[in-house]
Design brief:
Number of helices: 14
Oligomer: single chain
Number of domains: 3
Largest sheet: 5 strands, antiparallel
Strand order of the largest sheet: 1-6-2-3-4
Length: 403
């Protein structure tokens, strides 16, 4: 049963969402022309759907987090009026062992974060209304996400997005070149060729970020100056066509998912393969509860020509690693909640990271620490505070060995 709990004096947007998320069921969020659904279990998020690009979003995150399958080869027969069918698709792929539980968690977290971002952006300028349905409950066997933590992360992302002057521009818009000849005069040759090949008005900013393995904000920062000069325009694009989503099921409660038959080869990303040369720079991650230490490492890494992500919350480290797939990880040894040894062991248990270099950062460079670090799978040690020359030497050495 749907319950409309909106009222003119009810706080909308992020505050409104927070005040309504402590229940089990489906929360529908409406703005003019848009609708999203948040699925909750005892106040924790299990899934999110809706918005302008639901098929594009599912396809994008399957491609990003599940490189062993071809998202375009998945055929789904949807049933009208049944909610959460994209979630059920993911559950079926996990049940068939074509997607690992860790990969499913990464898809779920990325999907929910994207929907929350779009809701926050809409509520900045438009009235938001809510409807709740306590009877529509999804299976929670795949994952439950801490709503408050994810809301805080998304709010930070939105604050940066707004600071770039993009409050009225959605990441679902697609960049398109307007004056290629002038663009060539204002950009280096390699950047120009990359833009010509990728910025064609058919991929959203989010699509491009995943395709180029860049953080959305980093990619957008690159394009904003060109947008302000009128060399790039942002345009609306439609959701993906029904390739991979065909027909309607004849049964009102049936969801059919067809993938290549078991035993057929699926396209795989070679272990340890990374872009080189003129391609996208490797991503380096630093897990350290100290913002100051992360900022110092970021300065060194960026100046060395690499991409960087800092993670201060050790509890959220693994989901973020699954989402971003770094080429190398720096890991602080002493942190609250979980120490570096525990986190290193957790990372190594994920098959995706069995060969990813992990360098322990510590001020205690003793033999016992070294032995224990090797035991849990670390690739090396680096003394704190980090020195630029040593950091860049370690990165170059380990990436060379890895490739």
């Amino acid at each position: 049963m749907l319950v409309d709990d909106s009222s003119p004096d009810t706080p909308s947007g992020l505050l409104g969402i927070r005040s309504r998320m402590h229940f089990t069921g489906r929360l529908d969020v409406h703005t003019s022309g848009q609708q999203w659904s948040l699925y909750l279990y005892m106040g924790r998020l299990t899934w999110a759907s809706g918005g302008p690009h639901p098929r594009r979003r599912l396809n994008r995150y399957l491609n990003q987090h599940c490189p062993q399958i071809d998202a375009n080869s998945i055929t789904v027969r949807f049933t009208d009026g049944v909610h959460g069918q994209d979630y059920q698709t993911l559950a079926i792929l996990v049940k068939r062992q074509q997607v690992t539980p860790e990969q499913a968690v990464a898809v779920i977290r990325s999907t929910i974060a994207e929907v929350l971002f779009d809701i926050i952006q809409q509520e900045e300028t438009k009235l938001v209304t809510f409807k709740s349905d306590a009877q529509d409950v999804l299976d929670t066997s795949l994952a439950v996400v801490n709503a408050e933590q994810l809301l805080a992360e998304v709010q930070q992302l939105w604050n940066v997005w707004r600071s770039l002057g993009l409050a009225d521009h959605s990441p679902n818009l697609a960049p398109v070149l307007r004056h290629p000849e002038q663009l060539q005069e204002h950009t280096p040759e390699k950047v120009y060729k990359m833009l010509v090949s990728l910025v064609d008005g058919r991929r959203s900013l989010r699509d491009l970020a995943v395709l180029t393995k860049q953080d959305l904000l980093q990619l957008t920062r690159l394009l904003v100056p060109l947008y302000r000069k009128g060399l790039i325009a942002l345009t609306k694009i439609s959701d993906l066509a029904v390739s991979g989503v065909v027909g309607q099921s004849t049964s009102p409660s049936r969801l059919e998912v067809t993938t290549p038959k078991q035993g057929m080869p699926l396209p795989r990303t070679p272990s340890g393969s990374r872009p080189t040369g003129s391609e996208i720079a490797p991503l380096i991650v630093c897990i350290d509860d100290s913002l100051r230490e992360c900022q110092a490492m970021e300065k060194i890494v960026i100046q060395g020509g690499y991409r960087f992500t800092g993670i201060q919350d050790s509890v959220q480290a693994l989901p973020i690693l699954l989402e971003q797939k770094p080429s190398l990880i720096f890991l602080d040894l002493v942190m609250p909640v979980a120490n570096g040894y525990e986190i290193c062991a957790q990372i190594r248990r994920v098959s995706l990271f069995k060969d990813t270099p992990i360098v322990i950062l510590t001020s205690n460079d003793g033999i016992i620490d070294r032995v224990r670090a090797r035991f849990v799978g670390s690739s090396g040690f680096l003394a704190k505070p980090p020195e630029a020359d040593r950091v860049l030497t370690v990165i170059a050495k380990l990436l060379r060995v890895q490739s």
